[in-house]
Amino acid sequence: QVNSKQGGSPCKQKHVVLLSPLGKIEISGCEMGVHEIKLPKMSVLPTGAESSAACEVCEGAEEMPEPLQQCTAWLRAYFCEPDSTGSLPVPAFHHPLLQRDSFTRQVLWTLLNDVKFGEAVSYKQLAHLAGNSRAARAVGGAMRSNPIPIIIPCHRVIRSSGDSGNYGAGQPVKEWLLSHEKLQKEKLAR
């Protein structure tokens, strides 16, 4: 339960499960926006994780508030036809972390707006983009607390050495997302 700003009444959260090439992605949110996207944690990726793999809502499709409809549409496009994500609306977010003004919020918004599909940025570069070039460690903390992975693309933040670095859902998931984007971007460039 999350308290909303209007009178402090808790949101009526709905939950949706999206079957994706990465497995089941759990999404929660309310009429005000998406609260959280939970990726399956994996130490090894399923074989045949192809972008053409079906991407369908398998639980919670009835009575989906608009932000969850937009979120599932965006994620389906991300996995199945990534070049169309740019034309889709990014759903509203209603996680408390994204409501209050903080460096973490600044970093997450900067990442969402400035680091495009198929690009990667180092923690240090992202700190600079967010307005504090000495805050690379704080950027790492912001990535760990990102409640909306994939849409807020924390998987695109890598170490200065070029190493992919850690990821909440496991390094194989991060590497899959990065290579999915790279392959899709190369297809479009042809």
Automatic annotation (TrEMBL):
GO molecular function, one term: metal ion binding
Domain Methylated-DNA-[protein]-cysteine S-methyltransferase DNA binding: 105-182
Keywords: DNA damage, DNA repair, DNA-binding, Metal-binding, Methyltransferase, Nucleus, Phosphoprotein, Transferase, Zinc
Keyword DNA-binding set for record: yes
Main location: nucleus
Residue span, Methylguanine DNA methyltransferase ribonuclease-like domain: 19-91
Cofactors required: Zn(2+)
Superkingdom of origin organism: Eukaryota
Record function comment: Involved in the cellular defense against the biological effects of O6-methylguanine (O6-MeG) and O4-methylthymine (O4-MeT) in DNA. Repairs the methylated nucleobase in DNA by stoichiometrically transferring the methyl group to a cysteine residue in the enzyme. This is a suicide reaction: the enzyme is irreversibly inactivated.
Family: Belongs to the MGMT family.
Name the record gives this protein: Methylated-DNA--protein-cysteine methyltransferase
Originating gene: Mgmt
